[in-house]
Description:
This protein has 255 residues and is of the alpha/beta class. It has one domain: Rossmann fold (3-Layer(aba) Sandwich), CATH 3.40.50. 40% of the residues lie in helices and 16% in strands. The protein is built from seven helices and seven strands; from the N terminus they run E-H-E-H-E-H-E-H-E-H-E-H-H-E. It has helices at residues 16-27, 41-47, 62-75, 106-131, 161-181, 206-214, 225-237; strands at residues 7-11, 31-36, 52-56, 81-86, 143-148, 186-193, 244-248. The longest helix is centred in the middle third of the chain and has 26 residues, at 106-131. The protein is globular, with a radius of gyration of 18 Å. The chain binds nicotinamide-adenine-dinucleotide (NAD). Residues 11-12, 14-18, 36-38, 58-60, 87-91, 115, 119, 148, 150, 193, 195-196, 198-201 line the site of nicotinamide-adenine-dinucleotide.
Amino acid sequence: MQVKESTFLITGAASGLGAATAERLVAAGAKVVLCDVSDSISRHAAQLGERAKACMADITSSEQMQLAFDVAAKLSEEKGVAGVIHCAGVISVAKLVDREGNPADLDAYAKTININLVGTFNVMRLAAATMAKNTPNKDGERGVIINTASIAAFDGQVGQCAYSASKAGVVGMSLPAARELSRHAIRVMAIAPGVFETPMMGDIPDEAAQALAASVPFPKRLGKAEEFAQLAEHIIVNSMLNGEVIRLDGGIRMQ
Ligand SMILES: NC(=O)c1ccc[n+]([C@@H]2O[C@H](COP(=O)([O-])OP(=O)(O)OC[C@H]3O[C@@H](n4cnc5c(N)ncnc54)[C@H](O)[C@@H]3O)[C@@H](O)[C@H]2O)c1
């Protein structure tokens, strides 16, 4: 799968990992649709020039995401959408029982699951239906879906029941989705980032960030969004990567 002149849809593209991926793919000659619930998405797309289009959409909405894929299909000028890099997501922290003995808020739990897991399924199903119509490229490939899990899917910490479960669900869908979509020549991969320096991590106090960086075996620092983008680009071009989740974490194992 080549990046140059191909069209990709990127969710969560107004910030962090998604924004860096959009930037990298445009620099490599791709056309991109930047999709996000944030209205700053238009500004981000404008900064990337005419090969980037913005689409304000909520990943949990069937209609809004279908519209985003329609925008991407149009941008591709009949070539079809080659891939989706799905980065949109939210973090949440809540203990099952708080200090006063109150049970966790059930709606807050469901909200995290809805955005991170149901939203991912929504993006995947619409991406698959869109890309299944593509004419296969010279290697017989129709498209690639790259989801974003987290190392919390494997090493969830206290307070991460909702976040870990949502990301474990993303991990769990990778293989069955890849198996199913193989007959359409569409690959499905997921990246499980460790701790990355993005606005999502912005609220962590300096001390905590330094402690996290120190707990990474090597390199002893937080990940950079560009490093996520670099891996996303590699997954696009390397057709043997399929049905797998890649940890991108400097070897950290959360306690
Ligand atoms: N930063 C990290 O350390 C880290 C680690 C592991 C996994 N992740 C995952 O990587 C992904 C990207 O995280 P990030 O660090 O770039 O975060 P971020 O907060 O910088 O960016 C996330 C983007 O997703 C958008 N978004 C949230 N809900 C949405 C919705 N319903 N519809 C559309 N867009 C929505 C936000 O507006 C935001 O622009 C997330 O799925 C996150 O869980 C991040």
